[in-house]
Amino acid sequence: MKILFITHCHGNYGASRSLQLLLRNLKGHSIHLVVPRGLRHRNDLDEIRRFYGDNVEGIREFYLPFEYCYMGCPDQFMQKAANKLHNLTYECASNGIKEYMASGKFEIIHLNAPVLYPLISPALPFIVHMRDVMLMDQASAVEKVLQAKGVIFIDKGTREPFKDLPLKNDIILNNPFDMSYLERGYDDVKILSEYGLAKENLIFSCIGRIKESKGVKFIVENFRKVKGDNKILLIFGIGDKGSNYESDCRKVAGNDPRIRFMGEEADIAKVFMISDYIIRGDPWHLIGRTVFEGLYAGCDVILPGSLSDVDQNPDLKGFSAKVHLYEARNAEDLAVKIGNLTEKIKERTFRSNVEGYVEKFEQFIKKMII
After folding, report:
1. Ramachandran category for residue 100: left, alpha or beta (phi over 0 → left; psi -120 to 50 → alpha)
2. For residues 291 and 280, what is the distance between their CA atoms, to the nearest angstrom?
3. Could you report how far apart the first and last alpha carbons of the chain are, in Å?
């Protein structure tokens, strides 16, 4: 098949990381990739090529839309204003990407996130990767998704809003994860030394963009309540441009030496190699890629939710002994949970689901061209 993948971002975390793993393992197809052209910065195409691997035949840059259409979108004025300018640039230059999609004779056009929905046309074979819970009151976004030839939902939560709507084809397919490579070339003692940590430290890691929807400030506030000098909270990531949220989190952390803002880590595998617990502070039960990467790397995870949430997610249920739940945004419950966790991870099992994931992905997209 000739497949075009269009991604709204390219970096070390989340949706981009999932797509990178898929494309590095999707063989026997003519694969093409479109990445967003930046307003203020130029893409390093050599770096992008390293991210996505040699299976990608061609990489193109276009101005792309980024329409907020999901639960937890930013609500700060400066972020909204910057995004409006971004989308205005896309609208002025949209003929380029539209002509490329129409003339490329692609059998599948895969959008890596719902924020790209303005690209969808019923005349072309679009598949939307639904990685977020969509806001169903945004009629134009929902209408566009319903025009797609197929939708891939990452879990039941992202599928739920569409349960009564006429999708042409859909599947629930969790992300690809491969942490087996941690068995080779990663020395935990060396990594601990690099981060200024000791082997006896109990390490809690929060990974991803530092923003309100991730609940980073909520985590910091409640970690400060916990006693124990050996407990360390590492925060990997940076805040959004135009937002003061990261500086607010740092103020809340104060001078607590146990809370450390580490910035972005290019080799995120090192974080999973030395972390005992991966922690999330979302306002409701959301899992996210970092949760499963942690589990596949042998870490335990701390996240909001209930036992019924775990029972309804077969991918998560297989790790139920390593999942520690607290009531969403319940400060006391989170602080108690962190305080009660005292065991370091002594033996790790590194796992991969890539082979099975790629097989299911290919089976689904083949249905689209029949």
Report:
1. alpha
2. 8
3. 12
- The total number of residues shown for the chain amounts to 370
- Write the pLDDT tens digit of every residue in 229-275: 999 999 999 998 778 999 999 999 999 999 999 999 989 999 999 99
340 φ/ψ sector (left φ>0, alpha ψ -120 to 50, else beta): alpha
Asked whether the CA dihedral 93, 98, 99, 104 is positive or negative, the reply is positive
Q: Domain 2-176+353-368 belongs to what architecture? A: 3-Layer(aba) Sandwich (3.40)
Q: Which two tokens stand for residue 194?
A: 């690099």
- How do the domains of the chain map onto residue ranges? 2-176+353-368, 180-340
The two beta strands, 202-207 and 231-236, are: parallel
Burial zone of 270 (CB within 10 Å; 0-12 exposed, 13-18 middle, 19+ buried): buried
Q: Which residues are registered as beta bridge partners of 300?
A: 277
- State how far the Cα of 89 lies from the Cα of 84, in Å rounded to an integer: 9
Using only C-alpha atoms, the chain has a radius of gyration, in whole angstroms, of 21
CATH topology of domain 180-340: Rossmann fold (3.40.50)
pTM value is 0.85
